[in-house]
Design brief:
By secondary structure, the protein is an alpha/beta fold. It has one domain: 2-Layer Sandwich (Nucleotidyltransferase, domain 5), CATH 3.30.420.140. Helices cover 46% and strands 22% of the residues. A 5-stranded mixed β-sheet has the order 3-2-1-4-5, sandwiched between helices. Helix 4 crosses helix 5. The longest helix has 25 residues. 31% of the residues are buried.
Length: 164
Amino acid sequence: MSLATTQKARSNSGSAIHESKATRILGLDYGQKRIGLALSDELGVTATPLTMIMRTNRRDDIRRLREICQTHKVARIVVGHPLHITGEISLMAKETQQFAARLRKALGIAVELHDERLTTWEAQEMAKSSWKRKRAPVDDVAAAILLRDYLEHHQHAALRTEKD
């Protein structure tokens, strides 16, 4: 069952989630200087680059993310988990885990980590072919790639579950 189907079913059963409430997923490419943001559509099918925010301090970063979540009716946040290519946890992966835990506590919505290996590389490769983005940061594109991968993974998992 997809996220959208689950939300609709919960809405119809009278639980706290309604179709007019939070339905989107926000993807974050968390970095030391910037956070790239991407947003899903209401059905959880597509991922689109949203924006990039410059990091200032934890409190302000979380405040800005809270505002974005409220504005775009975000139900879930997916944070890129920067594992080493071998799958080992890097120092940045540990920092990202801590940031995700802070977000979960501060915003009160679901926050998940998702493997982001090679998303920045893929975003940079895409930027090479776009004259507009050649020198611009690609954090929002990396976030969209991460979110796309997350959505595809969950769609495939839902299909496997329905077949079983």
